[in-house]
C-alpha cells in the first residue's frame, strides 16, 4: 500500500533550492546564516540524492520485473572521485543548482570543491571501474559494483624538500552524504582453522577466525538518470562485541582487540600499483570483499530463483584483475558446502558466471600467494583449488595428447609452492579479456601463451574507454558548450555523435572558439599551479603534461631527461626562437618503490634550478604538482596542449589518460603502446606524434642484452644531461643522490630510455614547430576531439555486455 508515496513527497515536486534549505536545517542541522561551504555541500548532496532514490527504486523494481541479467563488477578499487557535480549533471540539475546558489550569493564551484575526493584506488584500474559504473547505468545494464569501503584511500602526497611524503587520506572525516548504511545486510567471512570430513563424507570447514562484512550502498545514476545502479562497498567489523569484563578491568586494548583486528581489514587501501606485496592482510582484504559479494549475489538470486544450475543464465561476474580471483574456489565452496551441490557441476556453474580482465603483463604485478599462507588462511579453498587443478589437468590430458598441464595449473609446487592467481582466474573463467588490442595480443603471446593454446576462444579484447560525462561534459564545460551549440547535445549520451565535429576542423571561426576555450582552461590551470606550488606559468606557452602513477615503464625519467636537455639547449642559445614550454608532472609513487621516489626528487630538484634561472625565464618552466587524484585530473586535462603517453612499448596495457587528453583537444606524443595504437587509428596518423621502438623491438632488445652506456655515449644531448646529474648539477654538488638512477640507466635501462631518447628529442622539436603554426595545431586538436567517439566507456560496456555478459 505504501509502494506509491503521496505526490507531495516526491522530491521532483519540490524546487531544488527548497530541498537544499530543508536538508541544511533538518539533516545537516545548520541555519543558512551560519552554514559553511561544507554544510551547503552536504545539504545539496542530500537534496540531489533524494532525486536519485526514486529512479534507484524504479531501476531495481524494473530489473526484478524484467528478470534482467545481472552483472556484478568485483573490484578492489573504485576511484570514483567527487560525486556531487556528476550527480547534478546526470540528473539535469546543473542550471537549477547554479541559479539557486548565485541567487544567494554563493558560488556553486566553491561548494563542489568542498566535497572530499574518495580516492579508493591507485590508478588506471580503479578509475576504469568508476567509468564503467557510470556507463553501465547510462547504457542500462543491471550492473552492480562490489568493492571495499576503505576508511583510508590512497595516501595524501606532499613534498618535503622535493621528496614524496605520504599521509593517511581521510575522506570519511566529515561523513559521506552519498552512502546508505545497510546494517541488515551482513555476511560472515571466515579464515584459518581446519577442514574435517563428516560421516557423510562432506567437507566441513571449522574456521579459527570469523568477521562480519557490512554493506554501504551508493546510488550510481547514469546520464539523464534513466537508470540508477548500486555501488555496494563492504566494511569489516568484529563478530564479537566488546569484552566488557576486560574493559572494566581497565584492559581497554585487550577488550577491543577483536574489533581492531576485524576493522583493520578495511582500514586502508594498499598503495602498490603494479607491485603485488603479498601481504596476508591484502589476501584477507581480497577474500573478505569477494566472499561477501558472492554470498550477497547468491542470496539475491535465491530470492526469486530456486535452481542454482540456472545461475549463469541470470548472473555474470567480472573479476577486475586477479585481485578477486579467489572467487573461483569461493563460489564453488558456497555451492558445494552451503548449497550441497556436486563439485564438477558447481565448477561448471562458477565458470559459467565468472569472467576475468587482465590489466598488466608486468611480472611483479601478477599475484601469486605462498601455498603455506593459503593453507593456513584458507584450508578449504586450497582443497578446492587442488580439485580444480586436477579437473583441469584431466581436461588437458584428454584434449591434448602429451601436453603437460603443470605450467598452466593454479598451483606451482616449485620454489616452496605458490598459488598463481592469474592461472586460477583463467581456468575458472568463461571469458578472459585484455584492455587494448595490442595488450590482448601480447597476453596470447606471453603470460597466457600455453593457456591460450588449449583454450583458443577464451581470450578476447575489450579496449578500455572513459565516461564522456565526467571527462568532457563536467570537467570542460567551455568545450562541452561549444560542442553542444555546434552539433547538439546527443554526444553526451552517445559519443559517436562527436564525429559530426570533423567538418568544423576546416572552419576557422570554430577553430578560434576551440582555441579560446583551451586558453581559458589553461588560465584556470595556471591559477591552480600558482596556488598549489607558487610557480607562475604563461598560459600561452605549450602546456606539456604527464600525469599518471610514477613507474619506470611509464618513463617519467625520459621526459625529465628531455626537459634537462631542452634547458641546456635554451641556455646555450636563448635567442634561438624557442617555443616556450611548461612541463607539468603529477603522480604518486608506491611508498616502497624507491627508484620511483628518486625520480620525483630528481624532477623537483631540476625544477628548482630551471625555474630560478633567468636565462630561460619565459622559455621553460618545470612543475611537479602534489597529490594527483581524480579532482586534479579534471583541472589538468582540459588545460593540456600536449599529452605525454611515452611508455616502453608493450608495457602500458591500455592507458585511459591518453583518451581523456585527446577527447579534450590535446595532441598526443607517444609510443605505439596500449591504446595509443588505436587512438592513432581513429584520429589519423597526421594528428598524433608517434615515436620510438615498437613492442617487438623492445622485447628483442630486452632479451638480446643492450649496452645503454654505449647509446648514451652516442647521444650527445643525453650524455651531457647524464653527466650533469651524476656530477651533482641538480643536487648542490651531491654526486651520490641520483646515483641509483644514473647507474640503472647506464647499466640496465630495462625500459629502453636510452635508445628512444633521440627519437623523443627529435619529435619534441617537431612539436615545437607545429605548435607555432596554431592554425594547423588547432585543426589537429579539433580532429582529435572529433575522432574520440569510439573511446567512450559506453562502447566498451556494450562490448562486455554483448561479447561476455550477454546482458543487453
Ligand atoms: C597487486 C598490486 C596491483 C595493484 C593494481 C594493479 C593494476 C592492474 C594496475 C593498473 O592499474 N593497471 C592499469 O589498468 C588500466 C585500466 O585497464 C590500464 O589502462 C593501464 O594501462 C594499466 O597499467 C596491479 C597490481
Name its key features.
alpha/beta, 34 helices, 808 residues, Rossmann fold, globular, binds ligand 26W, 22 strands
Description:
- This is Alpha-1,4 glucan phosphorylase.
- Its cofactor is pyridoxal 5'-phosphate.
- GO terms for molecular function: 1,4-alpha-oligoglucan phosphorylase activity.
- This protein has 808 residues and is α/β, with parallel strands linked by helices.
- The protein has 3 domains: 1-67 and 103-114, no CATH class; 68-83 and 118-462, Glycogen Phosphorylase B (Rossmann fold, 3-Layer(aba) Sandwich); 495-797, 3-Layer(aba) Sandwich (Rossmann fold), CATH 3.40.50.
- It contains 34 helices and 22 strands.
- Helix 12 (327-338) packs across helix 13.
- The model has no long low-confidence stretch (mean pLDDT 97).
- Bound molecules: ligand 26W.
- The ligand CCc1ccc([C@H](C)CC(=O)N[C@@H]2O[C@H](CO)[C@@H](O)[C@H](O)[C@H]2O)cc1 is lined by residues 122-125, 128, 272-276, 321, 359-360, 365, 367, 435, 464, 652-656, 674.
Amino acid at each position: 500500500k505504501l509502494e506509491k508515496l503521496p505526490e507531495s513527497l516526491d522530491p521532483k515536486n519540490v524546487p531544488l533550492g527548497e530541498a537544499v534549505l530543508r536538508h541544511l536545517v533538518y539533516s545537516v542541522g545548520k541555519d543558512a546564516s551560519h552554514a559553511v561551504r561544507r554544510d551547503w555541500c552536504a545539504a545539496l548532496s542530500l537534496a540531489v540524492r533524494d532525486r536519485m532514490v526514486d529512479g534507484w527504486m524504479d531501476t531495481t523494481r524494473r530489473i526484478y520485473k524484467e528478470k534482467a541479467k545481472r552483472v556484478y563488477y568485483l573490484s578492489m578499487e573504485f576511484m570514483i572521485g567527487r560525486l556531487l557535480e556528476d550527480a547534478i549533471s546526470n540528473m539535469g540539475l546543473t542550471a537549477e543548482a547554479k541559479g539557486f546558489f548565485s541567487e544567494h550569493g554563493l558560488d556553486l564551484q566553491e561548494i563542489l570543491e568542498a566535497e572530499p575526493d574518495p580516492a579508493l584506488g591507485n590508478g588506471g584500474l580503479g578509475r576504469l571501474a568508476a567509468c564503467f559504473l557510470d556507463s553501465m547505468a547510462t547504457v542500462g545494464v543491471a550492473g552492480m559494483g562490489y568493492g571495499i569501503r576503505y576508511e583510508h584511500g590512497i595516501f595524501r602526497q606532499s613534498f618535503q624538500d622535493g621528496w614524496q611524503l605520504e599521509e593517511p587520506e581521510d575522506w570519511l572525516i566529515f561523513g559521506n552524504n552519498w552512502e546508505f548504511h545497510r546494517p541488515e545486510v551482513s555476511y560472515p567471512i571466515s579464515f584459518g582453522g581446519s577442514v574435517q570430513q563428516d560421516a557423510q563424507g562432506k567437507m566441513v570447514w571449522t574456521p579459527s577466525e570469523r568477521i562480519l562484512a557490512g554493506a554501504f550502498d551508493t546510488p550510481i545514476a547514469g546520464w539523464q538518470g534513466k537508470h540508477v545502479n548500486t555501488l555496494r562497498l563492504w566494511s569489516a567489523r568484529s563478530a564479537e562485541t566488546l569484552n566488557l569484563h576486560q574493559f572494566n578491568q581497565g584492559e581497554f586494548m585487550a577488550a577491543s582487540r577483536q574489533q581492531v583486528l576485524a576493522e583493520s581489514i578495511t582500514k586502508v587501501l594498499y598503495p602498490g600499483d603494479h607491485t603485488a606485496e603479498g601481504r596476508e592482510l591484502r589476501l584477507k582484504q581480497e577474500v573478505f570483499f569477494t566472499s561477501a559479494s558472492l554470498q550477497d549475489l547468491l542470496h539475491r538470486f535465491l530470492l526469486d530463483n530456486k535452481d542454482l544450475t540456472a545461475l549463469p543464465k541470470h548472473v555474470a561476474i567480472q573479476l577486475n584483475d586477479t585481485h578477486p580471483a579467489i572467487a573461483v574456489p569461493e563460489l564453488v565452496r558456497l555451492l558445494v558446502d552451503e548449497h550441497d551441490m556436486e563439485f564438477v557441476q558447481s565448477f561448471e556453474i562458477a565458470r559459467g558466471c565468472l569472467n576475468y580482465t587482465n590489466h598488466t603483463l608486468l611480472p611483479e604485478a601478477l599475484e601469486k600467494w605462498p601455498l603455506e599462507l593459503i593453507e593456513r588462511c584458507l584450508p578449504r579453498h586450497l582443497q578446492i583449488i587442488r580439485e580444480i587443478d586436477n579437473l583441469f589437468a584431466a581436461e588437458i590430458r584428454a584434449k591434448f595428447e602429451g601436453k603437460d598441464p603443470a605450467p598452466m595449473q593454479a598451483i606451482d609446487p616449485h620454489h616452496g609452492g605458490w598459488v598463481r592467481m592469474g592461472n586460477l582466474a583463467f581456468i575458472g573463467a568463461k571469458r578472459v579479456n585484455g584492455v587494448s588490442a595490442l595488450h590482448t595480443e601480447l597476453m596470447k603471446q606471453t603470460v597466457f601463451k600455453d593457456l591460450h593454446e588449449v583454450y583458443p576462444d577464451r581470450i578476447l579484447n575489450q579496449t578500455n574507454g572513459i565516461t564522456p560525462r565526467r571527462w568532457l561534459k563536467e570537467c570542460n564545460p567551455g568545450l562541452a558548450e561549444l560542442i553542444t551549440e555546434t552539433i547538439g547535445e546527443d554526444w553526451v549520451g552517445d559519443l559517436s555523435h562527436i564525429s559530426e565535429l570533423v567538418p568544423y576542423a576546416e572552419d576557422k571561426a570554430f577553430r578560434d572558439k576551440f582555441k579560446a576555450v583551451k586558453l581559458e582552461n589553461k588560465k584556470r590551470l595556471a591559477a591552480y599551479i600558482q596556488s598549489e606550488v607558487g610557480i607562475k606559468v604563461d598560459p600561452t606557452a605549450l602546456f606539456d603534461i604527464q600525469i599518471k602513477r610514477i613507474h619506470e615503464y611509464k618513463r617519467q625519467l625520459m621526459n625529465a631527461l628531455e626537459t634537462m636537455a631542452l634547458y641546456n639547449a635554451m641556455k646555450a642559445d636563448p635567442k634561438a626562437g624557442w617555443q616556450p614550454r611548461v612541463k607539468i608532472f603529477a603522480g604518486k609513487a608506491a611508498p616502497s618503490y624507491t627508484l620511483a621516489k628518486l625520480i620525483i626528487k630528481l624532477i623537483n630538484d631540476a625544477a628548482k634550478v630551471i625555474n630560478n634561472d633567468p636565462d630561460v625565464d619565459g622559455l621553460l618552466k618545470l612543475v611537479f604538482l602534489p597529490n594527483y587524484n581524480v579532482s586534479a585530473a579534471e583541472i589538468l586535462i582540459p588545460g593540456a596542449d600536449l599529452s605525454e603517453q611515452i611508455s616502453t612499448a608493450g608495457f602500458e596495457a591500455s592507458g585511459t589518460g591518453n583518451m581523456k587528453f585527446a577527447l579534450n583537444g590535446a595532441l598526443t606524443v607517444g609510443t605505439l603502446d596500449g591504446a595509443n595504437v588505436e587512438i592513432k587509428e581513429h584520429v589519423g596518423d597526421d594528428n598524433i606524434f608517434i615515436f620510438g621502438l615498437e613492442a617487438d623491438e623492445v622485447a628483442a632488445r630486452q632479451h638480446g642484452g643492450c649496452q645503454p652506456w654505449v647509446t648514451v655515449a652516442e647521444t650527445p644531448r643525453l650524455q651531457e644531461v647524464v653527466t650533469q646529474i651524476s656530477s651533482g648539477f641538480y643536487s648542490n654538488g651531491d654526486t651520490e643522490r641520483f646515483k641509483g638512477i644514473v647507474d640503472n640507466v647506464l647499466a640496465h635501462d630495462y625500459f629502453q630510455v636510452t635508445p628512444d631518447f633521440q627519437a623523443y628529442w627529435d619529435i619534441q622539436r617537431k612539436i615545437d614547430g607545429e605548435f607555432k603554426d596554431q592554425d594547423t595545431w588547432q585543426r589537429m586538436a579539433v580532429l582529435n576531439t572529433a575522432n574520440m567517439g569510439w573511446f567512450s566507456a559506453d562502447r566498451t560496456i556494450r562490448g562486455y555486455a554483448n561479447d561476455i555478459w550477454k546482458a543487453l
